[in-house]
Design a protein that fits this description.
The complex is a heterodimer. By secondary structure, chain A is α+β, with helices and mostly antiparallel strands. Chain A has 19 helices and 14 strands. In chain A, helix 10 packs antiparallel against helix 11 and helix 18 packs antiparallel against helix 19. Classes of the chains: A alpha+beta, B mainly alpha.
Chain lengths: 686, 162
């Protein structure tokens, strides 16, 4: 099967090569048959990559320990569940997985738009195939997952040998979330290739205006949603597995996923200016280019070993390939822009400082500044080493100091932006829309201060969260009030109808609400508490309102590991509340250990208990307990963001005007003519 | 006051003093712990995990336990914050400090985001003010004629009609 997979991968490379060459020939000659064959080659790449992935998964499930990648990331006792996730556990497999997801997107795009947009699609096809070709080059010639273990036999002939068992999967990845987190994140990264291909294709094909945006809006939102989910799942995995009590440590890998998310978010906002007012065309094109480039840069950072990261499982010397590809993409984008930028001329200009357009400009600026801060902080240790020769660290304190104020500015704009009118907002309108939310925000701040909120940024975050929530609620209330008056429906029904009539707008509000919830959760970090102690059976620990008693410990051999488990009785207010079971797992296949954190999560706080190991001096178990307020809001906020995105992706049910024949008067009765006069409203799917 | 009463007073005084000392020592211990935590947040764990010292409890981490022990000892000894940080720099190099110094080349790391924000704000405000002053101005078309642009738009409209 390894030969079969290897051959399929090589064939996919050949097809991608043909899709590029044939596509370019088709653009030059305009021959329909060439266009069709290039498209079919692009679609065949997906099928062939699936054959290759299927082969590799088969190797995992049949424990073929002659394949080096299977040896490195699996063993006989590894549960089937994790044999699938072992696919992306290492460099070679994760790059193949990247190609797989990209090919799914490419296949879907080529299928959806087959026979449509004959000027644009050949360009898009060539760009997509070009990106695929790069990754397939890596898959085939640089990081091939089908390499077999072998030695030079007599006469220099390769002799394949098979190991009795594999090294096993790293314990950090043996966690259910790791089966779904990387696919989500990769689907986000690869998904941004689609708007990139359309933006570059439109520029090359001299498609002015917002047409490419109409075509790619949903693809961009899908990619953005996957990226959001991927980031949040990664944060949750770090929280629940790494056992350090936090969810975000500004690790280069985390930063790499955040940067394209920031520019992607900026694009999703500024795109509205192009759609509504024909503005910011150059800006939007470059935002998409930058988002794609940041996806590639992130991959370079995390795989090349350029910056040190805890995610060391995917490092290698593959960096020069990515540098070359990045340079090529920059050159192509610049050349296309310089040649055809006249077609990106703005159709309108800004009318006022206080308008929806200017709020989008500020929103974009803040998102971009956040991106620059993250990028510069991530790269600065490397830069400093080059310039000064000594390595410095840019750790969480730097990123928090720089990004927390930027984040709060963004939260403020989240509340302000949507309520400003297009073109110009009057002072009266400002007062009407913002007076109550602003007053309520200030009151919340005063109340918070009275209740003991002393951390400045948390207090501001609380005030802004109340402000933004009320502005969103106000928008729903106003719309639903009108809807109720029209349809005589109740409030919930009016809210639902309202949301379904303009899914994009109200979906956006729901996304904003989710972001507010995430911010509330982040603000809770200012009040984290933790305690660490050596504990013997029967000993106790108090943290916040919780009283923990270590009841007993046990050791349990499982199929793939041995577990050492603590059993804590948790009491609150003198009453037993629940049992918590933090554990440590030892994996004999690779002689590594992993933690399983026990968490009691409520909307108010998380009680987070880690079995941190045994003290080398006393051999007593060491327990680290954290009390993290409001963390659950982050995960719930993430869910709300996803729901909002789904709503925004749903087609709106809008009232539309249709013409119907006028009632004929007696004078014209009998005449064959109908007069389009009366107008009626009906609901239609748009 | 008889001898028994004197003894009682002495015992009570001793007990009070012992209690006071115990409380004081506990409070001092708590203060030391807090201080160690605060300093620990300014240091990186050198195991390569990219986390601050007090946050790293990665399984099998060979560095953090030793570093924390050293930190606690120095705090208990009464060393100043600067002295403690300096001693860690001498032992582990400049990379042990969790944020870039605010002097020399490293200052750029601090300035860059605020520079970007300031420059960006300036540009955005300038663009808005300039555009708001000439809202109706017909936009220049240096390379493409209006007719050609309109043709291209019509072609795009035609081809992308669903």
């Amino acid at each position: 099967m390894d030969l079969f997979g290897s051959f399929a991968l090589l064939l996919a490379f050949v097809c991608a090569l043909y899709a590029v060459a044939g596509g370019i020939a088709a653009i030059l000659t305009r021959k329909a048959l060439l266009i069709k064959s290039a498209r079919h080659a692009g679609m065949a790449v997906c099928v062939l990559i699936f054959v290759a992935v299927g082969s590799l998964v088969y190797e995992f499930f049949t424990d073929n320990f002659s394949v080096a990648y299977v040896v490195a990331h699996s063993n006989r006792d590894l549960p089937a569940f994790y044999k699938i996730s072992a696919l992306w556990a290492g460099q070679e497999g994760s790059l193949l997985f990247w190609s797989t997801l990209l090919s799914v997107y490419v296949f879907s795009v080529l299928l959806t738009y087959r026979g449509k947009h004959p000027e644009l699609m050949p360009y898009v096809g060539v760009i997509l195939a070009g990106v695929q070709l790069f990754f397939l080059t890596l898959n085939n010639f640089v990081a091939n997952p089908f390499r077999v273990l072998g030695t030079a036999g007599p006469g220099g002939i390769l002799q394949v040998f098979t190991r009795a068992d594999g090294n096993g999967l790293t314990p950090l990845l043996q966690y259910p979330e790791m089966v779904i987190h990387p696919p989500n994140l990769y689907a986000g990264y690869t998904g941004f290739t689609i708007p990139f291909a359309f933006a570059l294709g439109a520029l090359l094909a001299r498609y002015p205006g917002e047409k490419w945006i109409h075509l790619t809006r949903k693809w961009t939102m899908v990619a953005w949603c996957f990226q959001t989910l991927g980031i949040l799942m990664g944060a949750h995995w770090a929280y629940a597995v790494l056992g350090w009590g936090g969810y975000w440590s500004w690790d280069p890998v985390e930063n790499a996923s955040l940067m394209p998310w920031l520019t992607g978010t900026a694009f999703l906002h500024s795109v509205m200016m192009q759609e509504k007012r024909g503005m910011m065309k150059v800006w939007n094109v470059w935002l998409v280019f930058c988002t794609f480039l940041l996806c590639i840069l992130g991959t370079l950072l995390t795989r090349s070993g350029l910056v040190s990261s805890v995610h060391a499982f995917a490092q290698s010397s593959i960096g020069s390939w990515f540098v070359g590809f990045l340079a090529l993409v920059v050159v192509v984008c610049l050349a296309a822009f310089l040649k055809n930028h006249d077609y990106l001329r703005s159709e309108n200009r800004l009318d006022s400082m206080i308008s929806r357009e200017s709020s989008f400009l500020f929103n974009n600026l803040i998102l971009l500044v956040a991106c620059i801060a993250v990028l510069s902080g991530t790269l600065f240790p490397v830069l400093s080493e080059w310039v000064e020769g000594s390595k410095i660290s840019v750790g969480p304190p730097f990123f928090n100091k720089v990004n927390v104020p930027v984040g709060l500015l963004l939260l403020f704009l989240t509340g302000v932006g949507p309520l400003l009118a297009w073109r110009r907002t009057s002072l009266d309108s400002l007062k009407r829309n913002f007076a109550w939310p602003a007053l309520a925000g200030l009151a919340a701040g005063a109340l918070g201060y009275g209740l003991g909120f002393r951390d400045f940024f948390s207090l501001v975050c609380l005030m802004l969260s109340v402000f933004v929530t009320l502005t969103i609620a106000e928008e729903f209330y106003r719309g639903a009030r009108v809807m109720r008056a029209r349809t005589n429906s109740n409030w919930p029904s009016a809210m639902i109808q309202l949301s379904l009539r303009n899914t994009r707008r109200y979906g956006g509000y729901v996304v904003h609400l989710g972001i507010v919830m995430v911010f509330i959760g982040l603000a809770g970090a200012a009040f984290n508490q933790d305690k660490q102690a050596e504990m013997s059976i029967g000993s106790t620990m108090d943290i916040g309102r919780y009283h923990l008693v270590l009841q007993t410990m046990d050791s349990q051999p499982e199929r793939n590991y041995t577990s050492e488990r603590m059993m804590f009785e948790v009491m609150r207010g003198g009453r037993p509340l629940l049992m918590l079971y933090p554990e440590r797992r030892f994996f004999p296949s690779n002689e590594q250990s992993g933690t399983m954190v026990a968490i009691y999560s409520t909307l108010r706080e998380d009680l987070y208990v880690v079995y941190a190991g045994r003290s080398p001096e006393t051999n007593l178990p060491v327990v680290h307990v954290f009390l993290n307020p409001l963390v659950k809001w982050i995960w719930l906020g993430g869910l709300v963001v996803v729901l909002g995105t789904f709503l925004a992706l749903t087609p709106s049910r809008q009232p539309a005007l249709v013409l119907q024949p006028a009632t004929q008067s007696a004078a014209t009765k009998g005449a064959a003519q109908t007069v389009p006069a009366a107008v009626s409203t009906y609901e239609r799917e748009s | 006051m008889n001898a028994k009463a004197k003894l009682t007073v002495a015992v009570c005084a001793l007990a009070l003093a012992a209690g006071g000392m115990l409380l004081a020592s506990r409070s001092m211990q708590a203060q030391q712990n807090d201080r160690a935590k605060q300093i620990g947040k300014r240091l990186m764990c050198m195991c390569g995990c990219n986390q601050i010292l007090t946050a790293c409890n990665h399984v099998g981490c060979q560095m953090s336990a030793a570093m924390l022990k050293e930190l606690n000892e120095r705090v208990a000894r009464g060393d100043s914050d600067d002295l403690i940080l300096q001693s860690f720099v001498q032992e582990y190099g400049t990379a042990v400090i969790a944020e870039p110094p605010t002097k020399g080349f490293s200052r750029i790391a601090w300035f860059l985001p605020s520079m970007a924000l300031g420059l960006g704000l300036g540009i955005v405000i300038l663009v808005i003010v300039r555009w708001a002053r000439h809202p109706a101005a017909k936009l220049a078309a240096p390379g493409v004629s209006a007719e050609r642009l309109e043709q291209a738009r019509a072609r795009a409209d035609h081809e992308t009609e669903e």
